[in-house]
Automatic annotation (TrEMBL):
<keyword id="KW-1133">Transmembrane helix</keyword>
<dbReference type="GO" id="GO:0007596">
    <property type="term" value="P:blood coagulation"/>
</dbReference>
<dbReference type="GO" id="GO:0007200">
    <property type="term" value="P:phospholipase C-activating G protein-coupled receptor signaling pathway"/>
</dbReference>
<dbReference type="InterPro" id="IPR000276">
    <property type="entry name" value="GPCR_Rhodpsn"/>
</dbReference>
<feature type="transmembrane region" description="Helical">
    <location>
        <begin position="163"/>
        <end position="185"/>
    </location>
</feature>
<keyword id="KW-0297">G-protein coupled receptor</keyword>
<feature type="transmembrane region" description="Helical">
    <location>
        <begin position="49"/>
        <end position="74"/>
    </location>
</feature>
<keyword id="KW-0472">Membrane</keyword>
<keyword id="KW-0812">Transmembrane</keyword>
<keyword id="KW-0807">Transducer</keyword>
<feature type="transmembrane region" description="Helical">
    <location>
        <begin position="302"/>
        <end position="326"/>
    </location>
</feature>
<dbReference type="GO" id="GO:0005886">
    <property type="term" value="C:plasma membrane"/>
</dbReference>
<dbReference type="GO" id="GO:0035025">
    <property type="term" value="P:positive regulation of Rho protein signal transduction"/>
</dbReference>
<feature type="domain" description="G-protein coupled receptors family 1 profile">
    <location>
        <begin position="65"/>
        <end position="323"/>
    </location>
</feature>
<feature type="transmembrane region" description="Helical">
    <location>
        <begin position="123"/>
        <end position="142"/>
    </location>
</feature>
<feature type="disulfide bond">
    <location>
        <begin position="121"/>
        <end position="199"/>
    </location>
</feature>
<dbReference type="InterPro" id="IPR017452">
    <property type="entry name" value="GPCR_Rhodpsn_7TM"/>
</dbReference>
Length: 377
């Protein structure tokens, strides 16, 4: 048995523990001792190679994709509508998270050694979970809005931007308020072996016989967020899309409805992939992880748990696909932005082509004066 194991309870010191539970070192109260399995995991390729690779992909894709999305929503979309407002806020939530990802990359590449201090660790953890729950809530808002637009096309409520803005403000206020508990306890832990400082990885248990007081705050927080901020929006999203498909199914003879149905199916598939990959595993494992810690159970598959949290960050890359399939305007604006077309150029082209007639013989647009122009703009 190694020198650290003598301070651990039998259930932890036998090498089977994978809960990342630490106990204060009696010889040095500024350090925490962990079992061999935890120490090995902190040194493994899972946490020092796989995780930073995923975060590098998230940063490389999420930063430009969400930056362009915000640019399109703010400067290229003239007619704002509720869907664009929800999508802009979703892109902002993703961007606020992505800008902190380099710290996660540095942390894992440095052998899970956090060198930026406790306050910055709390901020990064807060933005991580804030992004996840903001994404869930805004996707739920988009799903309900999508159903309402299709089911009530003549309703003025579908164009009520004030309601959308109010909902977005409420979502931001709710998420920031519920993130407060994450600032009320320490996330950094100084480990004796390996000689590193972890950030939101190791849970320090003060009393092995009664572990619940040491994890009471995060336990209540993640149980509440899992049941209220994850499960309830999931139900809302499922109901909204079932009703949406029902409305589109009732008008199958209409070619427009058929096109909307195909688009809705693709959108549902993208949202489903986002939830199955990013949100369902991470939220389930958060509840399971802290429930087991509360009962003092160490062997709880921490490797899978930390991997699901990493995969949750992929929503910052998948969300732009939701914008792409929800809004035709967004698709057109992205194409024009990539082609370096200004808003004035796009408007001139639209006006020019609206005054032309399409000739089937020449397969081109012909102006009133007989001038022929290509349609490949």
């Amino acid at each position: 048995m190694d020198s650290c194991s003598c301070f651990l309870p039998p259930s932890i010191s036998n090498g089977r523990g994978r809960g990342f539970i630490g106990f204060v070192d009696p010889a040095n109260t500024n350090q925490v001792v962990v079992d061999k399995a935890t120490s090995d995991t902190l040194k493994s390729d899972l946490t020092t190679v796989f995780l930073p690779i995923v975060y590098i992909v998230v940063f490389a894709v999420g930063l430009p994709a969400n930056g362009m999305a915000i640019w399109v929503f703010l400067f290229r979309t003239k007619k704002k509508h509720p869907s664009s407002i929800y999508m802009a806020n979703l892109a902002l939530a993703d961007l606020l998270f992505v800008i902190w990802v380099p710290l996660k990359i540095s942390y894992h590449l440095n052998g899970n050694d956090w060198t930026y201090g406790e306050p910055l660790c709390k901020v990064m953890v807060s933005f991580f979970y804030g992004n996840m729950y903001c994404s869930i809530l805004f996707i739920a808002c988009l799903s309900v809005q999508r159903y309402w637009v299709v089911a009530h096309p003549l309703s003025q409520q579908r164009k009520n931007n004030k309601v959308a803005v109010g909902v977005c403000v409420a979502v931001w206020a709710f998420v920031w308020l519920t993130s407060t508990p994450l600032y009320l306890y320490d996330h950094t832990v100084r480990i004796k072996d390996p000689n590193i400082t972890t950030c939101h990885d190791v849970n320090v248990i003060q009393d092995a016989l009664d572990p619940f007081p040491s994890v009471r705050l995060p336990y209540y927080y993640f149980i509440f967020m899992g049941l209220v901020v994850f499960l309830v929006p999931c139900v809302v999203i499922v109901v909204a899309y079932v009703l949406l498909l029902g409305v589109l199914g009732n008008s199958m003879g209409d070619s427009t409805a058929s096109k909307n149905r195909r688009r809705a199916v693709v959108l549902i598939a993208v949202v489903l992939v986002t939830f199955v990959v990013c949100f369902v595993p991470s939220n389930v494992m958060l509840v399971v992880h802290y429930s087991l810690l509360k009962d003092g159970v160490a062997d709880n598959g921490y490797g899978f748990y930390v991997s699901t949290l990493c995969l949750a960050s992929l929503n910052s890359c998948l969300d732009p696909f939701i914008y792409y399939f929800v809004s035709e305007d967004f698709r057109n604006h992205v194409k024009n932005t990539l082609r370096c077309r200004s808003s004035r150029t796009v408007e001139r082209m639209r006006v020019s082509f609206s005054s032309m007639k399409y000739s089937k013989r020449s397969k081109s647009f012909v102006s009133d004066g007989g001038t022929t122009q290509s349609s490949s703009c």
